[in-house]
Write a structure and sequence with these properties.
six-stranded antiparallel β-sheet; 61% strand; mainly beta; single chain; 119 residues
Length: 119
Amino acid sequence: MGKIFCEFLAGSIYSCAECSTHITSQDQLVSKSFQGRFGKAYLFKKTVNLELGPEKIRVLLTGEHTIADVHCVKCHAYVGWKYVHAEDQENEYKIGKTIIETAATVLRVTEFPSRSGWL
């Protein structure tokens, strides 16, 4: 296995519960009013260090959406999904944003500056 390029975030961050890889920061939070596959989930504007799975159509509580599952780039743990397409105008604001399952993440506070690097 080769080296993995990761971004490291500063401040209040959500990281992978399995390997602590940074995923997003609290200032990217859009809403806490979502339901994931395994319980409570949050919607974020921007995420880092995630791999996108293949696109698929899924019927969710708010209708039919095209989504792609997202996994931690380091340990490949499932952490949520990214909205690719919404069938109705009411849900278009979700396109490009990511749902992160709270069961798959841990909220941490880091005091180090943001940076990128190879693992």
